[in-house]
């Protein structure tokens, strides 16, 4: 099991960074700016409550090597944080498998208590299988149900790298929802495809990461086990409840510091801070998002 897990870690590390600036150090002075190899830009932080803004606490667990980062005190593992409004975490894969019995695992991902939503530009709802009924049900902020249904008869009709409806199907998602569940089932309990496809899987995933391979639908739980049941997903974050237009710079809770500029988050969630022109040197970037008195 160690090898496939390392492989997932490796694949995640090989992904292009969410934004060019995500490697710079943006922590508050006196606060830890990294958890293992993962840079932690303010408003995110851990330890002393002065190190993070309300709602952006993360936990760095040193039990593992390298240490692992989690959202707040949840079990959602964070892989990368970009100061320009995105973070990458792991998300569960739901499965529906048949042989003598039916092994079934559903997933639910709830961000209701966090200032994040699932990124509509970076994620796709993805289902794989040849006897597959799958739905993504989103709520909290926006209610919708959409999905993918598929029947295919052999592996010859499937194409590596192609997710266009034969064995692999992807759909776009709307902006602005904070909770989803995945509903997964089959038309014929995989009876007609059992010899090559005993399982269906469905998940929301960073679409840059997932590349369908015919291998993925073959074998009992193979895709699930190979990925330790997890795939990377991208969340959008912003300072919620205000836009640059109505956030008061004199408000004690205003997030952007002296040398940073306010910009409205692309996903309409709120605002973010970007370093002002002329303040982009590595030393100066430490000040990003930090108020004058700090
Ligand atoms: C760190 O992770 C270990 C193993 O997963 C767990 O037992 C421990 O409670 C965690 N510590 C904290 C502070 O969350
Ligand atoms: C979404 O559905 C929930 C109940 O499932 C309901 O309470 C809520 O008002 C709905 N939201 C919208 C925007 O329709
Ligand atoms: C698809 O990719 C797998 C490896 O992931 C390879 O074994 C197989 O031969 C490929 N099939 C086709 C048709 O290219
Ligand atoms: C996906 O995999 C196919 C072959 O399996 C390859 O030709 C293609 O370049 C890959 N696409 C990406 C984006 O990695
Ligand atoms: C600021 O503007 C946004 C978007 O128009 C609105 O949703 C929000 O409620 C406003 N906040 C305040 C405090 O006025
Ligand atoms: C942040 O600043 C950089 C450098 O000027 C600029 O290229 C980038 O577009 C800005 N990002 C946003 C979202 O405003």
UniProtKB/TrEMBL annotation:
Cellular compartments annotated: Membrane
Pfam families, per the entry: GUB_WAK_bind
Any single Gene Ontology cellular-component annotation: membrane
Keyword Signal part of the UniProt annotation: yes
InterPro entries: WAK_GUB (IPR025287)
Gene Ontology MF terms in the entry: polysaccharide binding
Signal peptide boundaries: 1-21
Classification via Gene3D superfamilies: Laminin
UniProt entry tagged with the keyword Signal: yes
Major localization listed first in the record, in broad terms: membrane
Membrane topology, as annotated: Single-pass membrane protein
All copies of domain Wall-associated receptor kinase galacturonan-binding, residue ranges: 31-85
Source species, domain of life: Eukaryota
This protein's UniProt keywords: Signal
Protein name: Wall-associated receptor kinase galacturonan-binding domain-containing protein
The species this protein was found in: Nelumbo nucifera (Sacred lotus)
Taxonomic lineage of the native organism: Eukaryota, Viridiplantae, Streptophyta, Embryophyta, Tracheophyta
């Amino acid at each position: 099991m160690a090898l496939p897990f390392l492989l997932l870690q490796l694949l995640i590390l090989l992904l292009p960074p969410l934004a060019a600036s995500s490697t710079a150090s943006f922590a508050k002075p006196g606060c830890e700016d990294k958890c293992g190899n993962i840079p932690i830009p303010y408003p995110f932080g851990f330890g002393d409550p002065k190190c993070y803004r309300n709602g952006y606490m993360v936990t760095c667990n040193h039990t593992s090597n390298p240490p692992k980062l989690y959202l707040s005190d949840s079990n959602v593992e964070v892989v990368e944080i970009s100061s320009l409004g995105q973070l990458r975490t792991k998300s569960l894969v739901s499965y529906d498998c048949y042989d003598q019995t039916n092994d079934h695992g559903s997933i639910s991902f709830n961000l209701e208590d966090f200032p994040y939503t699932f990124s509509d530009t970076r994620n796709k709802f993805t289902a794989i299988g040849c006897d597959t009924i799958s739905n993504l049900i989103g709520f909290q902020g926006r209610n919708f149900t959409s999905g993918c249904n598929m029947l295919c008869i052999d592996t010859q009709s499937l194409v590596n790298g192609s997710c266009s409806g034969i064995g692999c199907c992807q759909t776009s998602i709307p902006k602005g929802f904070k909770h989803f569940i995945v509903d997964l089932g089959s038309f014929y309990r995989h009876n007609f495809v059992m010899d090559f496809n005993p399982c269906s899987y469905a998940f929301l995933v960073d679409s840059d990461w997932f590349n369908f391979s015919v291998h993925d639908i073959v074998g009992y739980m193979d895709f699930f086990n190979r990925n330790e049941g997890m795939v990377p997903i991208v969340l959008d974050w912003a300072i919620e409840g205000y836009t640059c237009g109505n956030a008061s710079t004199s408000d004690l809770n205003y997030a952007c510091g002296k040398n940073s500029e306010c910009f409205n988050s692309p996903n309409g969630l709120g605002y973010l801070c970007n370093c002002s022109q002329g303040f982009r040197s590595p030393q100066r970037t430490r000040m990003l998002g930090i108020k004058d008195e700090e």
